[in-house]
Design a protein that fits this description.
The chain is an all-alpha fold and about 80 residues long. Helices cover about 55% and strands about 0% of the residues. The protein has one domain. It is built from 4 helices and no strands. Helix 2 packs across helix 4.
């Protein structure tokens, strides 16, 4: 349920009207909810038949994998002092 709410919220607001930091946090949260990890395709995880990749997630929210990576990098920046 939470996954659908976040995805719908991103789609309704449009990427241009979303704060990039908030969008990055949403992407990270979606990755946690979907169980997306760095590296590997996780196809051997037969316990969860609903696994998606980062590429699938990017397609669902309407951005590229490269954009996902760039948004996530925003979260590693040091805030202004």
């Amino acid at each position: 349920m939470t996954k659908e709410l976040i995805e719908t919220n991103i789609k309704q607001r449009g990427l241009g009207n979303t704060n990039p930091i908030k969008l990055a946090r949403c992407v990270v949260e979606l990755e946690k909810l979907y169980g997306i990890r760095n590296g590997g395709d996780r196809k051997s995880d037969v316990d969860n038949p609903h696994l998606i990749s980062q590429k699938d997630l990017a397609k669902q929210i309407g951005i590229t994998q490269n954009q996902i990576a760039m948004y996530k990098k925003l979260l590693t920046l040091i805030p202004e002092l």
